[in-house]
TrEMBL record, chains A, B, C, D, E, F:
Cofactor: Mn(2+)
Naturally occurring in which organism (per UniProt): Paenibacillus montanisoli
Keywords, in A-Z order: Histidine metabolism, Hydrolase, Manganese, Metal-binding
GO terms under biological process: L-histidine metabolic process; putrescine biosynthetic process from arginine, via agmatine
SUPFAM superfamilies xrefs: Arginase/deacetylase
Presence of keyword Cell membrane: no
Name of the protein in question: Formimidoylglutamase
MF annotations from Gene Ontology: agmatinase activity; metal ion binding
Length: 302, 302, 302, 302, 302, 302
């Protein structure tokens, strides 16, 4: 994909823009997910542009690397502010493009979606979340961290709980209080056990059908910790009994095909924890590529 | 689950007791499975009490850590003796509780079941074993090691071969002689290929139906090496082509739901071999939690 | 299998011969797959001869380790020449045996099949390939490397494109140009997504039925990079979203049962990249054992 | 030293108190040094109280673990405030004790010394720093990070540049601008090459003699990155050509013997980067123990 | 040294015999030092026979691998018995040879020296020990483990305390009680700090001069944990601040030159903990080679 | 040094040029030293330009990265040809510059020096080698590999044996035959034991004094395996008992100060074997920087 991704020149028309969001000092537990944008960048070279499973070639998508959002060393609120403004500015410069934000920890999704909503004011935004967790912690105790983005979006009125579909919560990693909050705010979710029983394709069709009826635009957020620890060792919160990468990759190809799908982020991938063969970083890049394959497939149909 | 597990106070009523059995100098190949009780203890903190897949909360189970069985540095028979006595004593103090023994290597299952049988004298005990191996080596050549527990239980008259159901033997890791011994003593087993063809849920229902007809109480023993090496790198004898953790975890939730299920041990997990993200230790803790979830579910029904 | 594999004595009748092919300086990216023959040899001791999934015992197969093909330190063409001659000579000495070649990188398959075809002149050879890639790069740019063996066999007239069935290409790892070459030369392939949708058993039956009608003898080549990176971390080109080892192992048992299956190689396994528990090396040995199980099963039927 | 360190009871007389300072989100590059206080705590058990090199026993020192300074998840200035207050409060409760602060990243030294100075108002404080770096970055660009503590202390008027002695700057890891700032503010330093040429004992005697003439109390700060990367792999900024642990350990024993030595911190040790045998964490604990040995030796002389 | 070490044929005259002693289930903490004899055997191939530092060639030493002492899986006393008998028998078959015993944990030194003493009855044996520890724990609490060999030899009357010279105790890893026992029994020792101040050559000359006056034969025992953890990561008890391998290697060359040096063992090297480049296993082999170089040098002088 | 190294523009005046030589398929044992040029390039960013030990700033040296010599995938002789031509061409374009070649394995030194000699025809070239080995294997058996460069230079008449000074051969890693060849051809060498006894500074002064009298220009070649395995784990042939990085780094600073020093290469560093903190890659970059510091110091004197 080094054949694929160009430097960004002002005024250039883009199909897709990649924005690095290297913030992870807002993570509850120590994380080097801030190194992930560069890790993803350095792994593109092991990917080509043609996918043989889907018979789709990304070679003529106009993709550019927009660089990183500028971060401050010790002022986390300023970092979150910069992220929101970067999303607004990038969209105002390239109204037609598909923004891909590469985190960073999950706290970035809150300002990213706020910026996305500001640009698309008047439109209803829904969120398709792949995550082992609800990310519905309160903001009083520790401020906006990687445990709070969905709560932050709901409480700021940016997103309604019923416009969130979370695929993948599982195991013992969500306190009962958050499940209760999710239910009270009508957040939709498919536990991983449900996904296994119904099949990921069935779940995706159902989720997208639902969102299509509810919202104008779908923002996809992938917390890589949704994956089983065997497939994503570099997601600090991944556990046994999680999603297989083949399930996630198929889901994202389907998500990309949905015309209302309009933005993507990927978060909580800490490349410092990856083993030598960089399986998690490769999966992170693959996630992005598969959404783009879905988009390309959709473009070819029209 | 640090919210969950209290210190044990004498006279206290318990639902579940966790007993560390830090013996692995009886392992045929060198093993640090003796470090596993403490490894499991230190990983609880990454688990909550509420399971979203099963919608079950363990928060009001009365669980206590009973500490470790005292071991001798160089006298292995004395260690096995202590283990049997510890099981008897713990049960006599807490007759109603569910004992969870955290090994150590598989040699501990022989004295643990002997102690369990002594306490429940007059009742028929069956064994539900998850294992890549039969563990039916003879005791003459090397004494009671991690290769011999089922043989030791059969030859001591503690358990009948036909009251054992082993789920998971696979590959090239059982000599033909042991398969023959298993057949001669009517030991029941499902090879992993059978499990895959029939589905783990089907196999579990069949196995539990059978045991329910045969025995009064079911002792569950989980040798973590039943798992594929991708899911359990810290099981010295795990191999490619093994069970997936999602299969094992579902099986144990089902096992916990069975009213005759009355004890659990987990063995042959050597935390010194785990990669940094501790996937196998997490799986070991998850195994215990899922059995307890099944029990809690069963308690809620009644 | 140390019980199984003897030293080779001249004049001895063999069922199976294992030939080390320690060449990987012909790999496009740096590889220590040349260390794999010895890695496989040292792992046999953790395998027995009896497989409980298939109820087949390899103990009375006459298997010998034929040692390594002699390699030159800096003259790669001479190495490829030696490999072809070694195959011819081994077959001329043991006409009835089943040759198993342990690479080394995939460049070795070209001279191995050439030697195999020279021995079996007049017979039509087909190839059953398990691979993430087509291996159809042109030979002009870099000579005969691990990216070119299928192209080398087609362009030398050794094998026809339509007599190749490749199971497992997937993802972004084949340039569109090679897919086009494959189609133009009627190379057959099942993408991994097709395998998942149809099931590996169905695919194997279809592939073997096709080859049986087309060719006299089937040469099986396994590039270990067909596996998912979670299952084969030591395959430099393995990626997320690849084949599971349980699928590959079942496929090879089925392949061994086919009477026209007449040779096997396994390539691109770099043991220097394996984690401590040697999951990939164990899988490499398992691959060989399972083909032999299939053969033994077939022998028992007749 | 688990024999050694007790829980802290209010009103208890202490010789030494250990304070965890788990802050590293203020680190310029991502760091899990916030995990270090607990890592050090868990390694004590591999140390006894008697040192055979110095023939000193720490068994009757009254040492207590004071727990951790409370940190906020996303408000770094509040964290630094809490650290300064914790030092003040701990000293006001235990005026006679020797405070040992376990970081965390080097940003903590600025509030720690400020608190130490507030308690000892009227006294002149000097700093004995072991560090590969000057830590004299300006505070304008990124706020108070692990690159700024000495600058922060000088610019706030807490410490005079001439009362700092830095032992160990080396290599290419200090911009010329910082060396110039150091010279302009009369910061004293011994490059590692000087240390090697003169010997660590000679340097220590000279440095302590100088400080004794200049200041009332000496605060010792050890940035573990002063060590060679072979000895401190878990110091993110350690490099080849650094100090050997034997040199550092001897230096700290000597520092402890100095009566004006009145406080210690150790920083920038990221246990997540340590290899399995935890060499850096062990060195961190050893550093603390050796200062205490020096203190104990001094107490025995009087 | 694969050029060097032959298989042992009955009746053959030997200069040196290598005996594997694969026992480590007697280790206080879990250890795979039982894998060390095979690890050392497999690393010889990376050593030649000629040492350029000493200009000594071992090529014409008659060295044989005597195989392993037979161990029992669960009966540790029987293992210790077998070790003592193996030493006696090997010496009775090859009275003139130099026995090199490759452990295993340090418990093996007690039966090895007992066997050595039985063969050399009437002669006074001294011990030159390289060790971070005294190994003087009492035998009552846990039986003969890797913490007790020197105590076992003294209390059984095999060796007098004053005939032991221990080079290398350091740090916080010997309880004061053992130092007191050492002093009461006149065990000689050089702390590592003394070694550093006097130089390893000076210490060796002094130690050998002393032993030469006291004893007829010197048995050298090397506990690899004497080394710094940077040089011996695979010694479970190695720590920072330990001996450098260059010091140990020089010491052993000097020890080999001493005519009374008559036996060697090397213990407590757990190859499962070595990093990929096997630094500790290589050091273990180097230790043996250097003693042999000293012997060869001595033979060349006479 | 990312501040330091610019892209190379044709016609630009250079002080130093860095040339990647990514060839390691000529290595006797499998090596990924071909990945080292890029590894070194990616580590510059952790180095500044100012060295505080020497008080030298490299900021105004004109250094450019000349890119990589073009290599062929399977034709090793063509690779060696390209290397020689690249050296000739680079020198003809930049006659005044100091060429730094980043290998690759040690086979590259032979064509590099041949090219260097062709450019400087009429001048006598000497070699200052830092190496655990002589690299004097014959060329008949395996062609020009990493074991042969010095032999290749002597036998081709490019260099006289007496104009080679090798600092660092040690241990059991040179066959006696090569030592004999070295002596017969008057190759000079200092064993590591001699270096330790005399001190590296003394040895360097002696070696440079000797070379200054014998030759016009000195080519420095650093085989990173000269270092102890604790300091250079990623040098496949590094061993215990090797050189410390502090010794090597000081030596190279001194070498750079010598006015006849006119070229440098660094070889046999396989970054795939480095642990996470990249100690060996950092040392490789440091080696280059220190030679440049010596050169800069020399320039400042004149």
């Amino acid at each position: 994909m080094n054949q694929l991704i160009g430097e960004h020149t002002a005024g250039q028309q883009l199909d897709v823009g990649l924005l690095g969001v290297p913030l992870s000092r807002s993570s509850i537990t120590a994380s080097a997910a801030s190194d992930n944008p560069n890790a993803i960048r350095s792994i593109w070279k092991s990917f080509g542009t043609y996918n043989i499973d889907y018979d789709v070639d990304l070679a003529d998508l106009r993709i550019a690397d927009l660089g990183d959002v500028k971060m401050h060393v010790t002022d986390i609120p300023r970092c979150h502010h910069n992220i929101e403004e970067a999303m607004v500015e990038a969209l105002s410069r390239n109204p037609a493009y598909f923004p891909v934000s590469i985190g960073g920890d999950h706290s970035i999704t809150c300002p990213l979606v706020k910026g996305f909503q500001r640009h698309h004011s008047g439109k209803t935004i829904g969120i398709l979340q792949f995550d082992a967790h609800f990310d519905l912690r309160n903001l009083q105790d520790g401020g906006p961290s990687n445990g709070t983005p969905m709560r932050g979006l709901i409480e700021s009125g940016t997103i309604e709980g019923r416009h969130i579909v979370n695929i993948g919560p599982h195991g013992y990693f969500n306190a009962y209080a958050y499940k209760k909050y999710a239910d009270e705010h009508s957040v939709n979710y498919y536990t991983l056990r449900q996904v296994r029983k119904q099949g990921i394709e069935h779940v995706m069709v159902e989720a997208l059908t639902y969102l299509r009826e509810q919202v104008d635009l779908i923002y996809v957020t992938v917390d890589i910790d949704v994956l089983d620890a065997a497939f994503a060792p570099a997601a600090p919160a991944s556990t046994p009994g999680g999603m297989w990468s083949s399930e996630l990759l198929e889901a994202l190809y389907i998500a990309g095909q949905e015309p209302r799908t309009a933005a993507l982020d990927i978060v909580c991938l800490d490349p410092a924890r990856d083993p030598r063969h960089l399986i998690t970083v490769k999966t992170g890049a693959y996630v992005i590529m598969n959404v783009l394959c879905g988009i390309k497939y959709r473009m070819q149909q029209t």
